[in-house]
Amino acid sequence: MTKKYTQKEIELDKLILDKENPRFAELYNGSDKESDLIEYLLYAESAEEVAEAIFEAQEFYEDRPLWVFKLDDGNFLVKDGNRRCAAVKALQTPNKYDLGLARFEIKKLPVLEYNRLEDLDKRIRLEHNSNLCESGVEN
Per-residue pLDDT tens for 15-37? Predict the structure, then answer.
């Protein structure tokens, strides 16, 4: 059986947040600027708490890789893990985002790079549907 993804580490500046993410796209009405999306995720989607946890642990847990798809320009679209990625990006310049934390530099993040966007979208649907069922929430 052929794997549908490759596990690797990607430089932080090559990771692009997905402003079309269905979990928050309908609520986000900011600009296309990454800094605006990071600020939204920090303060409207609880990524601030994620940043605090990463700072406290002084590490990004490798067992929680981002799920990404490589774009034609060589960057990687974060399809799952946008809050975690935004938190790490904010920690690079915490004063810019009023985090009240010291700078914590992380150069690369663990990812699962999917070969086909269709496979990644299917995996995300399955993951989120199973989480809804486990929590007792019906879809």
Answer: 999 998 877 877 888 788 999 99
